[in-house]
Write a structure and sequence with these properties.
This is Exo-alpha-sialidase. It comes from Leptospira fainei serovar Hurstbridge str. BUT 6. Strand 12 and strand 13 form a beta hairpin. The protein has a single domain, classed as Methylamine Dehydrogenase, Chain H, CATH 2.130.10. With 354 residues, it is mainly beta. The protein is globular and about 45 Å long. A four-stranded antiparallel β-sheet has the order 3-2-1-28, with no helix packed on it. The chain has two helices and 28 strands. 53% of the residues are buried.
Length: 354
């Protein structure tokens, strides 16, 4: 397949259009040791002090696991005193001044994912170790200031809520150890997908590439991670989880996809993962081009976060060792520009105010 990328040089017609479309954007990234980063254009990043999140102890190894944007504010979630202790929720309108909220139900374990559906936020938590009988969600009010603990109900599967998204106001969530749930009432109650991903048998439980979900075109949902033989793959459904079709890559074993997004501007589906792995689909996820290295010279980075600017189509990624990358429109191999802040913190998530 022949790829054609657009220049980001402001003096070029496409670059000038990109500048106009990105002028009001704000990207916020979060990660290990209570660290955060901000960017106006997705190409140049500023690291922020790791003291911006109240009661988040960066020196103790606390981490911000995820961030989402909605209703004029960013909501970030994670831990408080270490990577495995404390429930942290913070909100901000500018990515610099953060206000802490109290987790509902006395929850004392970290949150791992967060999303907004047009009415409220929900954040994914862990199982109630050591019984592994229930998984939990934190559900916000309309202002994201008050949070309530909600149970998925008995699942008998250990793990954590590795991702949560919203499509048409309905929430969809995955559990790291291969399960999936949905909620149509703002996260108040949850039910398992009509066709369980567990019965699909296509995925393995993985701490390095846990099962995640993202939205495709229309009503398409795409889950991704690592296969039962620890090879990167993804599965898509066009009937909201009744039937799934799996696409397995030709990449080597012990790798996986960690971040993925559908680009509405190019209609491409793009997935990134361990060891600079890049997977592309020109059909929005129904096929998979042979995975390759995203950029020459990139071999060790694990890419954990990937967002797309819905106005310009710019793809923005982040991962280990404070590596950031961007690619205009398609995300083709060799089209990525990679930079680093020079520090070693891991970036876990990016949110965009378009």
């Amino acid at each position: 397949m022949k790829f054609q990328e657009n220049s980001l040089d402001p003096s070029s017609p496409s670059g000038f259009l990109f500048s106009l479309l990105s002028s009001e954007s704000l990207y916020v990234a979060v990660g290990a040791n209570c660290t955060s980063w901000t960017s106006r254009d997705g190409t140049n990043w500023n690291v922020q002090p790791n003291t911006l999140f109240p009661n988040c102890t960066g020196s103790g190894g606390a981490t911000i696991n995820a961030v989402a944007y909605g209703n004029g504010k960013f909501v970030a979630v994670g831990s408080l005193t270490s990577g495995t202790a404390g429930c942290g929720i913070w909100s901000s309108t500018d990515g610099r001044k953060w206000i802490q909220s109290t987790c509902g139900g006395g929850m004392a374990t970290p949150l791992h994912s967060v999303a907004y559906n047009g009415s409220n936020f929900v954040a994914g938590a862990e199982d109630n170790y050591p019984t592994f009988a229930t998984h939990f969600i934190q559900q916000s009010d309309a202002t994201a200031s008050t949070w309530t603990q909600v149970s998925f109900g008995a699942t008998a599967i250990n793990g954590f809520v590795s991702s949560v998204i919203s499509v048409g106001g309905t929430y969809y969530a995955t559990i790291s150890t291969v399960d999936s749930f949905t909620s149509s009432n703002n996260g108040g109650t949850w039910s398992q997908f009509s066709s369980s991903l567990t019965s699909l048998g296509a995925y393995a439980s993985s701490t390095s590439s846990p099962l995640k979900i993202t939205a495709g075109s229309g009503s398409r949902l795409i889950v991704y991670g690592t296969s039962s033989t620890f090879i990167p793959d993804w599965s898509y459904t066009d009937d909201l989880g009744v039937t799934w079709t799996t696409r397995t890559s030709t990449a080597g074993a012990n790798t996986g996809f960690n971040a993925a997004v559908y680009n509405p501007v190019s209609s491409f589906f793009v997935a990134l993962g361990t060891t600079c792995l890049l997977g592309l689909s020109s059909t929005g996820g129904t096929n998979m081009d042979p995975p390759t290295n995203m950029q020459s010279g990139c071999s060790t980075t694990t890419w954990n976060a990937l967002v797309v600017n819905p106005k310009s189509g710019l793809l923005v990624a982040a991962g280990t060792n404070e590596n950031f990358a961007y690619s205009p429109l398609l995300g083709a191999p060799g089209s990525w520009t990679i930079s680093t802040t020079g520090n070693t913190n891991t970036v876990n998530s990016i949110a965009l105010r378009p």
